């Protein structure tokens, strides 16, 4: 993700084949190494009250607040290890600039299709996806997906998202001791994103988005509620393409190509009219309030035959 779009986060997540005991030994060695800097960098094991036993080790750790003021000069970090993973997802080493550091970060991360699948699964029905009480963090998952999905390239990548999301879903069902349902996780993801696409009308959802933007998103990357609605629709459409798998690649690529031809923000009526007319004629959705790109995503999500609609829009755009 570009530096100007990177969001702040206190969470550090690691996928590992190490055992819980090995992670405990690692963090004990870490604590010993940084003991002279206490109260900074002292990891404390965190187990939520009433938590079910999961293959997860969570630690809280304090770090100095350098870029934002806090009442005690500390930021609390959360470090989470997903342990005992028998088959780690395919990964790659990246070197990326970071907004808060003077030099690039070098890290080994899951390949993009697998990151997309991991993020999408948080939108599935609980208990596999986010519990209803934690839905306030959904905007950050969608924000990350909006940065990741455009990086998915090729038929094979979309097939990998489809296969890995299903495999993760089945695995999480096993962890939660429930029976996997046919077709999931896609219907649950679809329903949750459709529900959150009402955020410009739902006060609680809109507040969750605003809180996320104010606390984690650079001011230059913040957008209005109508644009957030379109972002939800875009990820909803991307999830449909992922559910199709390999055949979803062509549909997504066509939608992305059309989006690139549309103005991202409203402009003078005379300039917007050719785009609005093309979208209204194709989708039947009339609105002068939406930017053409937002209008586009709303229209294709509501379409009975998105592929045919995309062809029609492409033929009518100036």
Description:
The protein has 318 residues and is of the alpha+beta class. 47% of the residues lie in helices and 12% in strands. The chain has 11 helices and 6 strands. A 4-stranded mixed beta sheet has the order 1-4-3-2, with helices on one face. The chain has a two-stranded antiparallel sheet with strand order 5-6. Helix 5 packs antiparallel against helix 7. It starts with 10 loop residues before the first strand and ends with a helix.
Task: Summarize this structure as a short list of keywords or feature phrases.
alpha+beta, two-stranded antiparallel sheet, 6 strands
Low confidence ranges: none
Helix amount: 40-55%
Spatial arrangement of strands, main beta sheet: 1-4-3-2
Major β-sheet annotation: 4 strands, mixed
The rounded Rg comes to 21 Å
Order of helices and strands: EHEEEEEHHHHHHHHHH
Class of secondary structure makeup: alpha+beta
Q: Tell me the β content.
A: 5-15%
Quick one: how many beta strands?
6
Figure out the total of helices: 11
Distance between the termini: 31 Å
Q: How does the overall form come out from the CA principal axes?
A: globular
Query: Mean pLDDT across all residues, rounded?
Result: 90
């Amino acid at each position: 993700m570009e530096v100007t779009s990177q969001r702040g986060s206190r969470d550090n997540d690691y996928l590992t084949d190490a055992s819980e005991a090995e992670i405990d030994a690692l963090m004990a060695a870490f604590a010993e190494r940084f003991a002279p800097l206490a109260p900074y960098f002292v990891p404390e094991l965190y187990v939520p009250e009433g938590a079910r036993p999961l293959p997860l080790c969570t630690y809280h750790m304090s770090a100095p607040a350098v870029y934002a003021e806090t009442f005690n000069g500390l930021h609390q970090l959360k470090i989470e290890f997903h342990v005992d993973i028998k088959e780690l997802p395919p990964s790659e080493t990246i070197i990326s600039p970071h907004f808060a550091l003077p030099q690039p970060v070098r890290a080994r991360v899951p390949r993009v299709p697998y990151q997309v699948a991991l993020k999408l699964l948080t939108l599935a029905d609980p208990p596999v996806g986010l519990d209803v009480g934690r839905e306030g963090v959904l905007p950050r998952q969608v924000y990350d997906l909006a940065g990741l999905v455009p990086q998915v390239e090729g038929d094979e990548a979309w097939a990998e998202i489809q296969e890995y999301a299903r495999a993760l879903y089945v695995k999480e069902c096993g962890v939660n001791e429930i029976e996997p349902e046919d077709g999931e996780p896609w219907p649950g993801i679809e329903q949750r994103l459709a529900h959150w696409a009402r955020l410009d009308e739902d006060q609680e959802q809109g507040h969750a988005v605003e809180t996320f933007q104010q606390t984690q998103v650079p001011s230059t990357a913040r957008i209005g509620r109508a644009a957030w609605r379109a972002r939800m629709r875009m990820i909803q459409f991307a999830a449909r393409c992922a559910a199709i798998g390999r055949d979803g690649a062509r549909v997504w690529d066509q939608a992305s190509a059309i989006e690139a031809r549309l103005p991202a923000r409203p402009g003078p009526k005379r300039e917007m009219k050719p785009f609005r007319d093309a979208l209204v004629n194709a989708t039947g959705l009339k609105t002068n309030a939406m930017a053409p790109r937002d209008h586009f995503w709303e229209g294709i999500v509501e379409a009975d035959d998105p592929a045919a609609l995309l062809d029609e829009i492409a033929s009518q755009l100036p």
